[in-house]
Amino acid sequence: MSWIIFKIDNKRLLFHHKTFNGHIMIYEITSFLKIPFRISIAVLITTLGLFAPRAVDATVRGKADIGFVGVKTKILTSGKTTKDMYLYGIGGNATLFFMENFCWCPSWLTALCFKPSFVTVSGDSDNGELWNLGLGVGYCLPVMSCVSVTPTAGITFGELDARVDIPQYALSNVKEQFQSRTPYVGVDVTVNFSDCWMLSLMYQYGWARTKTHIYDFIEQISESSGSNYSAILDYYITSCWSVNIGGAYNLSRSKEKHGIEVIGGRIGVGYTF
Prior knowledge:
Elements: E1 3-9, E2 12-18, E3 24-28, H1 29-32, H2 37-48, E4 63-77, E5 80-95, E6 112-122, E7 129-139, E8 141-144, E9 147-166, E10 171-192, E11 197-214, E12 218-236, E13 241-253, E14 259-272
Antiparallel strand pairs: 1-2, 2-3, 4-5, 4-14, 5-6, 6-7, 7-9, 8-9, 9-10, 10-11, 11-12, 12-13, 13-14
């Protein structure tokens, strides 16, 4: 018998595989993929979404996406751009329906869904890196046979590392780190134009609490808010598998107009179940 086990051990994600001849092989996914532990957990959740059951209503279906991501990130100070960064990596998200698995669950709860997401991108030594990990919940409401609306709420955690200049203090190329926690509310709209084409639109409004740390110099906590927009267009090559392209825009600023502006694009694959 062959089996597979995922195991978490001391902030390492391990992959245990027993082959048919009885040998047990262990791989450390976090080391092999060279990705942080928190991002590997998000990848695992999104991957497991491929094996989640179908929702009861044929118009309410789960979906998982993963793809190549490119973003342009601007660091804003008093509304002006002080740093441009071009970052590349991977990102993914999923909409998972699980409530129908519980026999005690009333039928109206089967439209409840969980929405994990992740992005991890980086550039060269001057451009830094960014990661974002989110988890949300939603309630899918089919409006017509081809349209569904899903109100959502959740929280995201993120970190941005960059190299910046501070001319007023005669400092150059110092490391600046932003760590943020952002609760949000939003809505997703999905439109099926035909058996082959599907458009997914998303809007979120979030309230961020950000810790800014310039090493050996400044540490402060600030609050900001802003909107996040995204769209993904899928073309289905089978009844379940699709290729997609999408874009996103996010602007989060404080009252003093300090903050971050992100413009991104993604090309990838999706699986609808």
